[in-house]
Amino acid sequence: MPTIETQDGPVWKRRTTAKSLLTWFCWLIGVAIVVYCWELVSERTIWFFVQDAGTQAADMASRMVPPKWDYMDVLWQPVWDTINIATLGTGIALVFAVPVAFLAARNTTPHPTIRAIALLVIVSSRSINSLIWALMLVAIIGPGVFAGVIAIALRSVGFCAKLLYESIEEIDPRQVEAITATGATRAQQLGYGIVPQIMPSFAGISVFRWDINIRESTVLGLVGAGGIGIQLDASISTLAWTQVSVILLVILATVLVSEWVSAKVRAAII
Amino acid sequence: MLQLKSVSKRYKTGDLALKNVTLEIPDGQVLALIGPSGAGKSTLIRCINRLVDPTEGSITLGDLEISSLSSWALRKARRRMGMIFQEYALVERLTVMENVLSGRLGYVGFWQSWFRRFPAKDIKEAYRLLDRVGLAHMADKRADELSGGQRQRVGIARALIQDPALLLVDEPTASLDPKTSRQIMRLICELCDERKLSAIINIHDVLLAQMFAKRVVGLQLGEIVYDGPPDGLGPDVLTQIYGEEDWEATIRKVEDEDEEGAEEAALS
Fold it and tell me: What is the pLDDT of residues B112-126, one digit of tens each?
């Protein structure tokens, strides 16, 4: 009990003495772990290479300027591919994520076993990075944009379904109850009681994931799954640093535009 | 005629919310159900349209045994029971019109309702009802733009468009100010009168119950402890329902406010 009786009346503290000692002890352990890990990392680092990191970075930066602007002529197509990979991937993911989310939400799932399967689908999709999905898909269906689209879609299904099922579980049940009381079927309860309530989060999740996918699809080319990453990989391997800087600037611009679009969409929906 | 025969409800948690409730409501009667929080008022009306399944007992509306219906037949039966809720329970992000039309969901198919293609006569009826509750100009507003009193009027229109035989009303005035509360109660009672509906109105406010209902039922810990006319609610009865308290002030105030209420009704 945090209230302690004394002669001058009760004194209130946030924690009892034992509890606050325990809190301090936990902090101590935390700090000790950080120090130990630092030691470990430090031992395995060749500090000789780190010492001139500044000079190296400056050197690389100097080789990156001026950006080779002519290279843009080659880049338009891959940029377009990149945006398409992200958009199509997100679209396909949403088509699958919506039913999975309804099966995974505690208040809409038809059966606990089905819920467990839906959760398994979500976890397995989420646990593998899109770059790794792409690596495997390039091996299975060959290199190209299609592998990229599928890789993005596979990774996004879990992400979108997870956020969506959480928002389905947080709806106001009274609105659904009112719809049920009119004699509506299960499907109608879903359409009138639940869908309107989750529309804002559905829109928010979609543009948020699309925004993330734009960034993820810029690197998919590194493993041959299409998009601007192919050019990036080629330029780095040939030490064409002026081309690398153009690519990085293009990626920056694309991401900025996607940020702007998703902010607009979110503002319009809520 | 609605009949409840020894209805009991035990929740999974083990709480016995209703004990052996037997009640008979003739057609066209408006009944106020009073009692302290947790007395089982909400459970009772939710057992009638089976939003909550009663553990024991039988409930019949007309000659339909509600307590043993299949889920398909239950949906058809629910169409005849309009429900009005404490916090309105409108679908906040739909328009007023969509909310009213949602009262017709039991009568139309899924795709018809999904694409909002309700029959023309339903839409006409929705406009008529919105006009009746004084919200004709609000049809295209979103439900969350409305004030509490307006929302409850939409809730009433949604219940009435079902073309019900019975209204189940759960604390219609609990989140409204005193004046709006009276207006809403008056509206509900007028509409019941117009359409010869029977109604069960759960209500916290003893004064409002006395003003508007012809019959009052007092529920305490899941049991009926009073069933009679509103002027039979003396200090003894109120003590029995709610527990020990000085009831004289409450009862005296009833008479004052009754006159005031009558004046207000005459003016409007």
Answer: 999 999 999 999 999
Query: Is residue B8 domain-resident?
Result: no
Please judge whether B92 and A175 are an interchain contact, meaning their C-beta atoms are less than 8 angstroms apart. Answer: yes
User: Residue A243 belongs to what H/E stretch?
Assistant: helix A241-269
Contact B91, A175 (CB under 8 A): yes
Q: Which of A174, A187, A191 sits opposite B89 (nearest CB)?
A: A174
List CB contacts (< 8 A) between A191 and chain B: 110, 113-114
Q: B102–A182: do the CB atoms touch at under 8 Å?
A: yes
Question: Which domain CATH number covers B32?
Answer: 3.40.50.300
What are the tens digits of pLDDT across the range A44-93? 888 888 888 888 889 888 888 888 888 888 888 888 999 999 999 999 99
The torsion region of residue A224 among left (phi > 0), alpha (psi -120 to 50) and beta comes to: left
Residue at B17 is within a domain: no
Total number of domains in chain B: 2
Contacts of A166 (CB under 8 A, 6+ apart): none
CB contact under 8 A, A178 and B90: yes
Contacts of A193 in chain B (CB under 8 A): 91
Q: What are phi and psi of B162, to 5 degrees?
A: -65, -15
pLDDT tens sequence across B18-32: 999 999 999 989 999
Chain B residues whose CB is inside 8 A of the A183 CB are: 75-79, 105-107, 162
Task: Assess if residue B258 is contained within a domain.
Answer: yes
- Same domain for B75 and B148, yes or no, is no
Q: What's the CA gap between B33 and B195, in Å, rounded? A: 21
Based on the domain organization, do B74 and B189 belong to the same domain? yes
- ipTM surpasses cut 0.85: yes
pTM of the entire structure?
0.81
